[in-house]
Specification:
Chain A: Keywords: Membrane, Transmembrane, Transmembrane helix. The complex is a heterodimer. By secondary structure, chain A is mainly alpha-helical. Chain A has twelve helices and five strands. Chain A has one domain (67-311). In chain A, helix 3 (73-81) packs parallel to helix 8 (188-212). The longest helix of chain A has 28 residues, at 2-29. Chain B is α+β, with helices and mostly antiparallel strands. Chain B has one domain: Jelly Rolls (Sandwich). Chain B contains one helix and nine strands, in the order H-E-E-E-E-E-E-E-E-E. In chain B, strand 5 (77-84) and strand 6 (90-93) form a beta hairpin. The chains are: A mainly alpha, B alpha+beta.
């Protein structure tokens, strides 16, 4: 009799395990369900920027709309190419890293320090790179993404710490692998926070430099952040109820988006030219953003407030 | 009991096979963004049925040289990717170039674009697609 009980138990455990494995696979393959309200909210946001689907025969899937942000490296490159000199004072100090104890602050500051490392890298300030990289390693452990920042990657980064071009490629690849790891592990909220931290930090550096070097080109670059900001909000909105921090962050980003909405956009479509042999298309369409110095200073203030909130 | 063990083995191997396919997609797509290109740090992946498309919204800065690369994980499939401007004008489609897996772009002005990636399978099998965006150093 006890043998039969034991067998039954083993069977029950195995059946339970099968259910768990099957459910996990089903969950991993299935796009996450959202509540009706949440979907409506996001759909409204999406509707504001997405044109109607014109192609016949295709099926429109909300879950298949993805929003991207330009690489934060690009802003650092813009600053460097504009002849603006290196300013370490603008970066988030590494000694603050131990104060970040929540998943929210760790993830968002992983994005911040990543941009700082990119900025240091663009300006080839190798003496500062090591401490920023060390902080990223610690935060990756805390965030459970150390598998991506594994020994091989660490070695590659450390070997190329003074090689600007190689380091830029390796760090960007690492960020892409972090993004992939988080998406595969259903941690898109952490991924969105890393992107948010990166975006806020890069725009913070840009606006602070604008204060010191008021140049129309930099003002234009600030204005160009209008659509990336909209995309960032769409990425974050599904997690608005995660915590008060998420809510505060999203509310302030939406408030900032209202300011960006005052930028006047002019657009002229001009046909593109293809160069098949080079596998290249030159896109000739012209877009102009009209931003006033007053609007720029309001954006600077709002970014400053957000920056304090995430790095304090 | 043997059947149960067999079933567990099959389900576990299916999970690993799916993860391995994800890695294959990344390796295949990364081939087109070699050392000259810096990734934007994100991967754009979607699981689609044949005929369905996914949309990717992005901003391209003026003065940069970009590369868009896209692959799918089914042998008998094609990935058609097209780039539209903010007024839905078609700027590029790889349909015109034998569904080439990558293409480069230069922008006269900073533009907000939508990349539509359509997955087509001859045998109507569902599949995964992956798009990567990089810019030249």
């Amino acid at each position: 009799m006890p043998k039969t009980h034991a067998k039954n138990r083993i069977r029950l455990v195995i059946i339970f395990l099968i259910i768990i494995v099957a459910a996990s696979i089903f969950y991993l393959r299935k796009p996450s369900d959202k509540t009706t309200d949440e979907v409506k909210l996001i759909e409204n946001l999406v509707a504001s920027s997405v044109k109607a689907e014109h192609e016949s025969g295709t099926i429109f899937h909300f879950n298949n709309i993805l929003f991207s942000l330009p690489s934060p490296y690009q802003i650092s490159l813009i600053l460097h190419e504009s002849g603006i000199s290196y300013n370490k004072e603008l970066l988030n100090t590494t000694n603050k890293a131990s104060d970040y104890v929540t998943n929210f602050s760790r993830a968002i500051n992983f994005g911040v320090y990543g941009v700082d490392l990119g900025y240091i890298n663009i300006y080839q300030q190798t003496q500062d790179a090591a401490s920023y990289f060390a902080v990223l390693k610690i935060l990756s452990l805390d965030l459970g993404i150390y598998k991506v920042l594994n020994q091989e990657t660490v070695n590659r980064i450390e070997t190329n710490i003074d090689n600007r071009d190689s380091l830029m490629v390796i760090v960007s690849e690492t960020y892409r692998n972090v993004d992939k790891f988080l998406k595969n592990n259903k941690r898109e909220d952490t991924g969105a926070l890393i992107l948010a931290g990166g975006w806020i930090e890069s725009v913070y550096v840009l606006t602070q430099e604008m204060k010191n070097n008021p140049h129309p080109d930099l003002m234009q670059r600030i204005a160009e952040q209008k659509r990336p900001l909209e995309n960032l909000i769409k990425l974050l909105v599904p997690y608005a109820e995660n915590s008060e921090n998420y809510k505060f962050l999203i509310e302030n980003l939406i408030d900032l988006a209202y300011t960006f909405d005052e930028i006047i956009e002019e657009y002229e479509y001009i046909p593109s030219i293809d160069f098949p042999k080079k596998k290249l298309t030159i896109v000739n369409s012209k877009s102009k953003l009209i931003i006033t110095p007053k609007l720029t200073s309001v954006i600077t203030e709002k970014i400053d407030k957000l920056h304090k909130f995430i790095t304090q | 009991m043997k059947t149960l063990y067999f079933f567990i083995l099959i389900t576990i191997s299916t999970t690993f096979s799916s993860l391995a396919q994800d890695n294959t997609l990344m390796v295949e797509c990364s081939k087109y963004l070699q050392s000259n290109y810096v990734s934007d740090g994100q991967e754009y992946k979607a699981d689609l049925n044949s005929g369905e498309s996914a949309e990717f919204h992005t901003t391209f800065y003026s003065g940069n040289h970009y590369r868009v690369a896209g692959v799918s994980n089914q042998e008998d499939s094609q990935l058609i990717f097209s780039v539209y401007d903010q007024e839905n004008h078609l700027l590029f489609t790889n349909k015109k170039f034998r569904s080439t897996p990558y293409w480069d772009f230069e922008f006269a002005s900073t533009l907000n674009c939508t990349i539509k990636a359509q997955y087509i399978s001859k045998t109507q099998k569902p599949g995964s697609i992956l798009l990567l965006i990089g810019f030249q150093q």
